[in-house]
């Protein structure tokens, strides 16, 4: 069933002279989101789903097509076999891309994403050092290299995501304890290196936006919790098509929440903090101590479990159970309609997903799903920051970049 796409409410408190431009931007956003969710779709169907007039839809579609965001589908659709064929519209994936940068503890992921959030090119850059300027310089160089391989694709902007405390408005990584970053002006540095608009956010919020736009999870007015458990553990909460940021984008800082049954010492001096229990560093250390593998890559633990190593499988299930307790704690407070989990065992193993769900009551367990982007989660996190801005204000696209 097609879902009606209702435009966000217009605030009557805005000045009268700003009403028309604001309404135009809101309507353009509504049209583009409708095509994203339902395309290829005829203009008449867009008008019906959004409640906008046919003339307004035609006007916005023409402008969005001119900007390179929409295109006419190659095969027209006929209406009952009578009259002129409809020319359905779809999001144009052929020309425009956004760059994505995700800075993790061991490496940076750079990628290009099309306008449907699909990764078209990706590269992982290990950190020889974690000095912020050099990390960001290498990221800019990696993006330039990817763009050079497909000169027909035009970049609209760059999205940057990382764990820890990331201030979206200021464009800074305020605090990333594992990298040792403090007040790093990521937006300013990347904009100077790339010459492109740069947008910055935390990776859990970025992935919540990606799910809202492109995923199989929560969309529209539904509420959703996203738990990210990597080396950094954090969360995001979205409701009514908005991801909550809070003052200075501090929402989602859950590292030191106490976890039932946790006994892992934390750097804060306590034991059982969520970050200490769920960090991939903890998983890899336990795997080394158990003789499962020698490295620091959690994928080695997954590979060992897939090869039949019983201890590796047990370690992954135990971590998934602890993630389930974290979900239980967070859902008791937020009561979301759906829960998305990005955790390496849950993504790749059904027994881990079952272990996580086993910590929840059956009704809640049924709402928990893994990320929609299992093979490209870090690339999508970076690109989604820029794509979220695009879909909120498509008329901000510069014709010079088309």
Automatic annotation (TrEMBL):
Record-stated family: Belongs to the ROK (NagC/XylR) family.
Origin superkingdom: Bacteria
Pfam families: ROK
Region (Disordered): 1-26
Pro residues: compositionally biased ranges: 1-12
InterPro entries recorded: ATPase_NBD (IPR043129), ROK (IPR000600), WH-like_DNA-bd_sf (IPR036388), WH_DNA-bd_sf (IPR036390)
Listed name of the protein: ROK family transcriptional regulator
PANTHER family per record: BIFUNCTIONAL UDP-N-ACETYLGLUCOSAMINE 2-EPIMERASE_N-ACETYLMANNOSAMINE KINASE, ROK (REPRESSOR, ORF, KINASE) FAMILY
């Amino acid at each position: 069933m097609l879902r009606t796409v209702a435009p966000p409410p217009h605030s009557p408190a805005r000045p009268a002279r700003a009403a028309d431009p604001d309404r135009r931007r809101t309507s353009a956003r509504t049209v583009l989101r409708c095509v994203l969710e339902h395309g290829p779709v005829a203009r008449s169907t867009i008008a019906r789903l959004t409640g906008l007039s046919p003339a307004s839809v035609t006007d916005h579609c023409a402008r969005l097509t001119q900007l390179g965001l929409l295109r006419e589908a190659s095969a027209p659709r006929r209406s009952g076999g009578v009259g002129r064929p409809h020319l359905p519209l779809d999001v144009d994936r052929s020309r425009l891309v956004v760059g994505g940068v995700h800075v993790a503890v061991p490496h940076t992921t750079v990628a290009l994403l099309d306008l449907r959030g699909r990764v078209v090119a990706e590269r992982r850059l290990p950190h020889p050092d974690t000095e912020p300027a050099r990390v960001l310089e290498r990221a800019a160089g990696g993006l330039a290299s990817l763009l050079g391989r497909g000169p027909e694709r035009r970049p609209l902007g760059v999205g940057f995501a990382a764990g820890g405390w990331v201030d979206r408005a200021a464009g800074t990584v305020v605090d990333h304890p594992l990298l040792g970053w403090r007040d790093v002006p990521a937006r300013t540095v990347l904009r100077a290196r790339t010459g492109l608009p740069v947008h910055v956010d935390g990776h859990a919020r970025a992935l919540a936006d990606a799910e809202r736009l492109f995923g199989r999870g929560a969309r529209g007015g539904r509420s959703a919790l996203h738990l990210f458990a990597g080396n950094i553990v954090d969360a995001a909460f979205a409701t009514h098509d908005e991801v909550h940021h809070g003052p200075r984008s501090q929402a989602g800082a859950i590292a030191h929440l106490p976890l039932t049954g946790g006994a892992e010492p934390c750097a804060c001096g306590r034991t059982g903090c969520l970050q200490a229990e769920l960090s991939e560093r903890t998983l890899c250390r336990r795997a080394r101590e158990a003789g499962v593998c020698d490295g620091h890559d959690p994928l080695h633990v997954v590979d060992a479990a897939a090869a039949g190593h019983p201890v590796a499988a047990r370690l992954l299930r135990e971590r998934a159970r602890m993630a389930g307790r974290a979900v239980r704690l967070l859902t008791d407070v937020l009561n979301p309609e759906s829960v998305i989990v990005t955790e390496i065992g849950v993504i790749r193993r059904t027994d881990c997903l079952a272990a996580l769900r086993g910590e929840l009551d059956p009704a809640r367990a049924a709402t928990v799903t893994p990320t929609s982007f299992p093979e490209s989660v870090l690339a999508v996190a970076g690109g989604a920051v820029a794509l979220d801005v695009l879909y909120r204000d498509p008329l901000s696209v510069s014709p010079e970049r088309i």
